[in-house]
Amino acid sequence: MNQQLYSSKLLENVVNEFSKLPGIGQKTALRMALHLLKQETASVQQFGESIIRLRNEVVYCKRCMNLSDTDVCEICANPRRDPSLICVVESIRDVMAIENTMQYNGVYHVLGGIISPMDGVGPADLTVDALEKRVKEGDVAEVILALSTTMEGDTTNFYIARKLKDAAVKISTLARGVSIGDELEYADQITLGRSIIHRQPFEMGE
Amino acid sequence: MNQQLYSSKLLENVVNEFSKLPGIGQKTALRMALHLLKQETASVQQFGESIIRLRNEVVYCKRCMNLSDTDVCEICANPRRDPSLICVVESIRDVMAIENTMQYNGVYHVLGGIISPMDGVGPADLTVDALEKRVKEGDVAEVILALSTTMEGDTTNFYIARKLKDAAVKISTLARGVSIGDELEYADQITLGRSIIHRQPFEMGE
């Protein structure tokens, strides 16, 4: 699309700002800007302010490096969570995915990425040192490595496991296997192979 | 998706605000919010402020009802545009579409919608009275009706034409026909039929 001609510089600015967001083109950005113009002044004010506040006020939890409004995040500060069980994840999205399962009662450690020489991400860019310190100084019983099953994830798992090998801590990883609801014939060979090797005792149900 | 659990209220607010935008779900909203967190504080500040300023400061051009930063928009204020030629459009998007063609040198009149009883939009919700006043008081030679070719568009065209019938003004409408680049066999019957009725003299080129 050629250079759009806007009758309003204010509108043009907002469209340009929206187009910088991932996956948003000029047309969608314009639709968003025109949508905002139809909303109440107060609610648009709130929208703009919430964005500015997020960037200015959000911090990383000093324990788990998760995004937080306070020094220590709600999960770390929750007395009903088990602080001796640490789940290591790549990003805050993974924290949310695991929290949504309602199956995990421990705390987290957010690495902020995985080791990926192709993208120029080395161990020093991640929060591995903080994890090591946390494990060695705290009362940690188990570290669950919950990274992607990619070469980068495996490399990072290996790096972390080596860093922690002197600490008296159990290191585990997520169970891999055929997804619930999947048909066998469509599962990939590696997943299917692993799910045979790591087969589990059959449970008769309750 | 169930209720997401955010570790930060600030983040949750921004995600909720983004999800109110048309076509944006929770996951995309989260992606946008996390994207903003990676940007410079100053540029996020500017983003938030541009949204607030748009809603507070943008006005309708008092002549053509287009969005504008000033009382009279840039198009109406441009001395090189022909103020005796008014193109009537539904919305600011249509102004932008026509401006992009670089083929139009007149001014506009933005109706703010079309007559649509199904959506509860009547003539009183549009800026038809302002158009009538503009035509009757000003030095207008021609009004081009550039609305959608739908029943609502036709109704609105008819309503406007009747309102303007006492004014000594030429009323025209956009040429309809087979699109440039289209193959005849795929053109719909009505468009093809009209393009035969309104056939034009063949031009040998320059």
Could you describe the 3D structure shown?
Two copies of one chain form a homodimer. The first copy, chain A, has 206 residues and is an alpha/beta fold. Chain A folds into two domains: 9-57, RecR Domain 1 (Helicase, Ruva Protein, domain 3), CATH 1.10.8; 79-201, Dna Topoisomerase Vi A Subunit, Chain: A, domain 2. Chain A is 42% helix and 12% strand. Chain A contains eight helices and six strands, in the order αααββαβαβαβαβα. Chain A has helices at residues 9-19, 26-37, 41-57, 74-77, 92-101, 128-137, 151-163, 189-197; strands at residues 59-60, 67-68, 82-89, 106-110, 142-145, 170-173. In chain A, the strands form two sheets. In chain A, strands 4-3-5-6 form a four-stranded parallel β-sheet. In chain A, strands 1-2 form a two-stranded antiparallel sheet. In chain A, helix 7 (151-163) links the parallel strand 5 and strand 6. Chains A and B meet through helix 1, helix 2, helix 3, strand 2 and helix 5 of A and helix 1, helix 2, helix 3, strand 2 and helix 5 of B.
